[in-house]
């Protein structure tokens, strides 16, 4: 079998690339290890930046999102029992959308497979890449129904298989460099069957550790609690979670938290990594397959979409018009924003975690950071305020 492009992974990155290619009339195949039902339910991100939504909209992929997503223009820090509301839209002119990742994935699969007629194979096993540095790469896998090895020849491979995928390993090791950073911090990531406790994102900077609240939908809310890395979620029974959230997010005049059953409870060890370059021969990585950014600043899915816009457009230009320029500059263009967001994430991490570091100096600078977001702020440094809600450079 032959396709112009094989896309490995049906997350936000892979499905966006697939949709762009189908719209340009390019034949492509998406290979995914999980079932369609599973990827349409897997809970993860929820905060999408305004430029990313505009990018989806320009490609005909934001219809349901714009009907159903909530628009957010402010967030709130809670520190030392005080509330510091940060109306970032007033400062940057930009806002965020809250739209759960499973809904976006559902929209993207439906558009790709059911509307644009794209080929997608779920439940595949043991995906392997071959000859990506040659002119005729291929991808082999075991089909779920047949149990047979299948092989697909293609012009290009898009590696969109997330942080634990296989495509990154096919980059020529002597040319690819992986830079890593470990925060030495864990987050207990929780989903509660309860409406949000506030109309915006909450960040609690507490001497006992960070706590966060992120609205997801009228029925479900995400919470985070800083914990030791590698901690066991079983150390966090229902009562302990809610007592700790109440303490770390408590503030004068704040409404009590709306509690509910915890339907997800997992410990994330906060770390980042970046692979450079993001391409080798005819293999191009996109999203978490190329770079992981800890969910501190809610940037991972946004970066995955940024890569996907650039890669989809570049592959379409190459395959429909013979224009190679997008592919040639792809890695460099993606990495500018990747490093920008990694830097922002490090800065924000200090704001979240500094007061729990047991160091009065770090606690002091954390308080100054929260106070800078108060109703009468000294303006944030331009790089901070722009990264908060808006990317630098042109929109893809
Ligand atoms: P994904 O979403 O991981 O999709 C990769 C797909 O590839 C499949 N796969 C394979 N398929 C074929 N062959 C293989 N060998 C394969 N191996 C894996 C997988 O099953 C999957 O379907 O990667 P993609 O598309 O790059 O998207 C990245 C985002 O999912 C990720 O960055 C975000 O979820 C990160 N993130 C957040 N990002 C935001 O922008 N805003 C947020 O609010 C936000 N919140 C979060 C988050 C991540 C979290 N976790 C779980 C780490 C909150 C949490 C708790």
From TrEMBL:
GO terms for molecular function: FAD binding; oxidoreductase activity, acting on paired donors, with incorporation or reduction of molecular oxygen, NAD(P)H as one donor, and incorporation of one atom of oxygen. Residues 3-344 form the FAD-binding domain. Residues 378-396 are annotated as: Disordered. Keywords: FAD, Flavoprotein. This is FAD-binding domain-containing protein. It comes from Streptomyces haneummycinicus.
């Amino acid at each position: 079998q032959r396709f112009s492009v094989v896309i490995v992974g049906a997350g936000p990155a892979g499905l966006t690339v697939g949709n762009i290619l189908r719209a340009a009339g390019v034949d492509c195949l998406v290979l995914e290890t999980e079932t369609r039902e599973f990827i349409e339910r897997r809970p993860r991100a929820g905060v999408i930046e305004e430029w990313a939504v505009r990018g989806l909209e320009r490609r005909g992929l934001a219809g349901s999102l714009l009907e159903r997503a909530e628009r957010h223009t402010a967030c709130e820090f809670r520190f030392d029992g005080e509330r510091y509301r940060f109306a970032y839209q007033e400062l940057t002119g930009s806002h965020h959308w809250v739209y759960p990742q499973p809904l976006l994935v559902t929209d993207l699969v439906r558009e790709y497979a059911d509307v644009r007629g794209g080929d997608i194979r779920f439940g595949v096993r043991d995906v392997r890449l071959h000859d990506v540095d040659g002119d005729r790469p291929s991808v082999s896998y075991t089909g779920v129904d047949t149990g047979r090895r299948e092989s697909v020849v293609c012009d290009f491979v898009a590696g969109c298989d997330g942080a634990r995928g296989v495509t990154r390993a096919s980059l020529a090791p002597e040319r690819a460099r992986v830079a890593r950073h470990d925060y030495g911090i864990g987050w207990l990531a929780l989903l509660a069957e309860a409406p949000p406790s506030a109309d915006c994102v909450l960040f609690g900077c507490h001497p006992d550790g960070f706590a966060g609240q992120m609205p997801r939908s009228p029925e479900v809310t995400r919470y985070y609690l800083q914990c030791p890395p590698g901690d066991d979620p079983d150390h966090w029974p229902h009562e302990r979670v809610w007592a700790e959230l109440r303490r770390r997010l408590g503030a004068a005049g704040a409404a009590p938290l709306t509690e509910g059953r915890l339907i997800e409870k997992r410990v994330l060890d906060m770390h980042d990594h970046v692979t450079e370059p993001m391409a080798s021969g005819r293999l191009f990585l996109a999203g978490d397959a190329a770079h992981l950014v800890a969910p501190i600043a809610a940037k991972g899915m946004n970066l995955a979409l940024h890569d996907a816009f650039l890669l989809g457009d570049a592959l379409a230009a190459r395959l429909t018009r013979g224009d190679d320029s997008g592919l040639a500059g792809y890695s460099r263009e993606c990495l500018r924003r990747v490093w920008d967001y990694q830097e922002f994430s490090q800065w924000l991490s200090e704001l979240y975690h500094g007061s729990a570091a047991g160091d009065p100096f770090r606690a002091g600078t954390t308080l100054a950071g929260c106070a800078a977001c108060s109703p009468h702020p000294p303006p944030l440094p331009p790089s901070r305020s722009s990264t908060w809600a808006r990317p630098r450079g042109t929109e893809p």
